[in-house]
């Protein structure tokens, strides 16, 4: 395959495994639903975890695991899919970088704690 696709914090060779993800859910603040700075490109597993507040990104765009998710450690699948990337920084797009206030909202209102 040609040039790899870059998602949140890892490299994906197959774009079919990637999904867009709203930082602030539409149900919370629908006025941001079309704002490109309210989106991330994440692998399916990471999108599901982000949407459920199991992971988030700090003010430096680094991956953080929730206390809830950490309760299940050690566990091979979680180690492979999440723990291996803790502290890794989001790969920011050239245009429409995530709005820091939106990520703060996610950390404060959706994330299940650090």
Automatic annotation (TrEMBL):
Annotated organism of origin: Candidatus Synechococcus calcipolaris G9
Full protein name: HNH endonuclease
Keywords recorded for this protein, A-Z: Endonuclease, Hydrolase, Nuclease
UniProt GO molecular function: endonuclease activity
Domain named HNH nuclease: residues: 24-58
Highest taxon in the source lineage: Bacteria
